[in-house]
Task: structure prediction
Amino acid sequence: MAWTYLFLAAALEILMGLFLKLNEGWSRPGPSIVAVMAALSSIFLLALALRSLPVGTAYAIWTGVGTIGLVLIGLVFFNEQLSWTRVFFLVLAITGIAGLRFSEAA
Result:
């Protein structure tokens, strides 16, 4: 169940980042409220996951999945540029996250 909590927390981290973008510097109340609620919910679920997962592994996966998700959202919805350098580092991040996840199972 800890891994489920962790990946739900990461999904909420992505949601938080998206709504931070949409709140336009805290000037829009709706997106601002969603961002804060997603952040608090994400941290709550991360805390539940940390009951049984190592803190370093869980935190790295939480932030890594959030980062990758937000990069992809930026590419798709905000027309951010994709370069070979960004692709390389995204692949590196995914490899690192998978490595942490599966080294924990060993």
About this structure: The first helix runs from residue 2 to 22. The chain has a mean pLDDT of 94.
